[in-house]
């Protein structure tokens, strides 16, 4: 608010916006000299009617900010956005809902906000409630809904009311797997069947690929590429591979545990390739600037932006002396199907309040042909006791 007033005062005096000169690039891993950052800059694109566009990028790249600008929740500092048609947007759980109103009342309120007439909303009402699966609680104030119920109803309203443009952020992760599949099916029908424009932000590349025909990749607040979806995903994976392990960490232990190297089966090459018949051994190393009496090193394995499982090096932690450290993890052969996987790494300290975490610290590829005979247990990849080589 204070900066908006400063901008307004500068315009009144015929001066240049003071924040246009000092804003820095939106690179979340580099310490800046200014506390003003360009969330987005120099974006220039056009989306046609009926396009399904997947907006992808690393955390902090500016995806949600772009959707807020397109939804007119936030005004751009400079430049303009031209939109033809009514927009239904789902940016956060329960966007546009009033917590004191019932589900029924919020459906009519959202419809009115979108410019719908009461008769239009009534015609869609039963379909919305059935899709959301909240028949029993439709006359209950939404403040009593769980987050899952909230997002089910919010998505149902946004998708069924007759807007020309549907904007959905990655809030669908709140819902269960069955509802996520239902939502993706509805968005596909909205785009391909009804000719409405869909803008979809997700870290799930499989969903982006299935739903969208165009991909827009954002990187550090800049438009990296807008291309057919397969090319866009390939470019995005290329950005992940180029991540520097020393630049992606957060948490209050990041100055005490400095992660420097990661290798997969002895290879330090980014995106090394390994056969599905081989066990995967991951080693991380670095330097401790202070002694920790109880440190628990952890890694998470991701595929297409979805976390598959997390492993701990030791169950109860161990002492880490000041100086160099290494931590070792193992995954049994045949657990991971052919594909590309991203490694996130980190640690807890002496208490659960002490932590360090780094996404996109390494990438590796599993090669081979998947057959059912390769599976070693019915538990699947989520059962970490089955996966571990360590214990």
From TrEMBL:
<keyword id="KW-0067">ATP-binding</keyword>
<dbReference type="InterPro" id="IPR003593">
    <property type="entry name" value="AAA+_ATPase"/>
</dbReference>
<dbReference type="Pfam" id="PF00005">
    <property type="entry name" value="ABC_tran"/>
</dbReference>
<dbReference type="InterPro" id="IPR027417">
    <property type="entry name" value="P-loop_NTPase"/>
</dbReference>
<feature type="domain" description="ABC transporter">
    <location>
        <begin position="20"/>
        <end position="245"/>
    </location>
</feature>
<dbReference type="GO" id="GO:0005524">
    <property type="term" value="F:ATP binding"/>
</dbReference>
<keyword id="KW-0547">Nucleotide-binding</keyword>
<dbReference type="InterPro" id="IPR050683">
    <property type="entry name" value="Bact_Polysacc_Export_ATP-bd"/>
</dbReference>
<protein>
    <submittedName>
        <fullName>ABC transporter ATP-binding protein</fullName>
    </submittedName>
</protein>
<dbReference type="InterPro" id="IPR003439">
    <property type="entry name" value="ABC_transporter-like_ATP-bd"/>
</dbReference>
<dbReference type="InterPro" id="IPR015860">
    <property type="entry name" value="ABC_transpr_TagH-like"/>
</dbReference>
<keyword id="KW-0813">Transport</keyword>
<comment type="similarity">
    <text>Belongs to the ABC transporter superfamily.</text>
</comment>
